[in-house]
Every structure is written in structure tokens, then in C-alpha cells.
Amino acid sequence: MKKTPLFLLLTLTILASCGHATHSHEESGSNENTESAAQSDHHDDADEIVIPAHVAKEAHIAASSITPGDFHGVLKTSGKVLSAIGDESTVVATVAGVVSLNRKFTDGTSVAKGAPLFTISTSKLADGDVSSRASIAYNTAKAEFERAEKLIADKIITEKEYLAAKADLENARLAYEAVGAKTAKGISISSPASGFVVGCNVKDGDYVEVGQPLMTITQNRNLYLRAEVPERDYHALGQITSAKFKPSYSDRVYDLSQLNGRLVSYGKSASATSSFIPVTFEFSNTSGIVPGSFAEIFLIKGKRENVISIPVAALIEEQGVYSVFIKEDDVHYRKQEVTTGDSDGDFIEIIDGVKPGDNVVTEGAIRVKLASASSAIPAHNHNH
């Protein structure tokens, strides 16, 4: 039967506390005293944590032997994910009036090119319906031009008057077409491109002016990652080759080397209003990354060799002190304080505390920590 997390926690705590306890068996004629004493002599360290192999397996606790290898220098900073230039389109109001949404739009809603998005009603404006006025102006200019065509043939009007009538018709036509498609409810505003909604700026009943942005649509093919680097790290910008980042809405770390990422540019100086220097990358958005989100960024610098590193998940932090758990045999674990170095979001450099060949817990370290906490339970005796 599958154990619940609470049952598993209790199992770890009880077993670990027994590992810390002192057992006294006083049964006559038994060899248990001799065996217990031998085990106690072999593992009498107060920092020992005892977790039976079958419990460790059920708790998904796993350890790996540490081998030095290549590790990139890392410059940790923050920044933002942005839509790439050319991938965004803005939908604007073609007339002034009261807007209504054709359907509910949320960020990420898919829209097709030419699909109706908004309707703007101008029927209650003081100047009258915009579409009707544009239609009247166009039809009037068209009639005047047709009359001018007949009069110029008989040389009744001048060439100048004819050209003026033609210009009036063109202007009226452009104004009529700019208003947009007329529906029973008003002027229809359509999507200029296919893509995804990244921001709707209005709601039903809002009054809008001509040219006011209503919505932003992104094709979402490429994104920018812009890191803000402090001035003190300017000397390291020339060493940057790639980056990893962790969005504010997720614990996942994205690697630009796996997203067709490339370094676009980095600033040569800070601006007058900021003490940070921008570093910009471009990458393919193949993982549903949200444009506009803030991110923790790990800028990758030159490669270093023979570095001891472990997964970030293997590290335990307590009041600013970092530790790992070392597995000494099938059932015994030991807590080891370490000194850390650079981190790329996935792995972290260990400067001191771990040596090659150490069997470090790389999965389930937090569960070992729960077991180690049981050392505060007083020792007990079993008297038979």
C-alpha cells in the first residue's frame, strides 16, 4: 500500500531516533548485547543518521560519488524576459467611441489574423455616428467627382477644379476605409496578425480615443532575455558566452544553449539614470515562457577544470550555514558543513567540505534532514 507523506515522515523520524538511541538488552543467554555493543563501537558518532535501505528507497533518497569536472564561471544577477522586436503587434482604436469586447480575452488567448476583437459604438456621440458621417462624405465626394468628369470634358470647369474634386474623393475614400467595417453594433476592429494576447488594455463600456492602444498581440516565436549587470562586474562582460534563467513564476531553470540562444549585445556603459549595464540574449520560445516576466539570471562565463560541484538540490541551508549529507554505508549518513562557490542554477561549486569519492546525497536531502532532526529526541532504553 502506498504510504502517505505523513506516514513516511513518522517512519523516518522513528527509525532515525532509534539509530541515535542507546539500547540495553538484559536477556540471559542472549548474544544481542555483544552484537549491539559491536555496532555501537563501529558507529558511535553523535552526528550519525540511521536510515534503513528499504526506507531510503521508499523516500527516494539517492547518493552519488563525487568526481571533479568542468564548471563554468557564473555571474548571478536579475532581469526580464521580453518579446523580440518585430514579433508584437498593437491593436488600436480607429474611431472614438464606446468599446465592447467580442469575447473574453486573457493573456495567452490565441487569435487569428483578421478575427474580430472589438466593436466601437459611435451612435451616441454628439457629432453623430462616425461611420454614417464618413459614408455620407464619401458618397458626396464621389458624386461631385462624377459631375466634374462630365464638365471637364466640355471644358466648363478648369483642370484645377477637376483635380480638386478628384482629391476630395480620395480623401473621403481613405477616411471611410479607415473607419473600418461597420456592423449593426458599431465599428469592428480586427486582429492585424495571428498570435497570442499578451495584454488587453480596455474593458466593456470604456470610452476610447482614436489611436488608443486596445490590445497587444505577439507571435511569440522569439524572446529576449535582458540581464541587468551591476557596474562593478563590467570587467566580466567580455567573458559571457551564454546564460541560464529561472522565471519568477517557476522553479524550473532554463538553459539558453538548449533554446537556440545567442548573445545579442551588451552595453558599453551605464545610462545616466541607472547603475546597471544591460546584457541581451535572443532565444526561441519553445517552452511556453511568459514574455514580460522577471527572472533570476545566471550569466555563464569561461570554463574551469577540475571543479567539485553538486546539484543545488543536494545543498541544505540552515541560518546561513550550508551542509550536505554524506552516505557512509548502506544505512548510515553524516551531515557535512561545506563552503560554496558559484552556482549556475542547476549545480553549485563546492570549495571546501567535500572531496573526490565522497558519496553525497543528491536526491532527497531534505528527507535526510528531517531524519537528522530526530537527534533531539532523548535516548531510551529497552529493558526486557
List the helices and strands and how they pair.
Elements: H1 5-20, H2 32-42, E1 48-50, H3 53-58, E2 62-65, E3 69-83, E4 88-92, E5 97-101, E6 110-111, E7 116-121, H4 130-153, H5 159-179, E8 181-182, E9 187-190, E10 195-200, E11 207-208, E12 213-218, E13 222-230, E14 242-247, E15 254-255, E16 262-266, E17 276-284, E18 294-307, E19 309-311, E20 316-318, E21 321-327, E22 332-337, E23 339-343, E24 347-352, E25 359-363, H6 365-372
Helix pairs in contact: 1-6, 4-5
Overview of this structure, please?
The protein is of the alpha+beta class and 384 residues long. The chain has helices at residues 5-20, 32-42, 53-58, 130-153, 159-179, 365-372, and strands spanning 48-50, 62-65, 69-83, 88-92, 97-101, 110-111, 116-121, 181-182, 187-190, 195-200, 207-208, 213-218, 222-230, 242-247, 254-255, 262-266, 276-284, 294-307, 309-311, 316-318, 321-327, 332-337, 339-343, 347-352, 359-363. A hairpin with a 3-residue loop joins strand 23 (339-343) and strand 24. The protein starts with a helix and ends in a 12-residue tail after the last helix. The model is unreliable at 19-44 and 375-384 (pLDDT under 50).
Q: What is the overall silhouette?
A: elongated
Which percent band covers the strand fraction? 35-45%
How many H/I helical runs? 6
Structural class: alpha+beta
Helical percentage: 10-25%
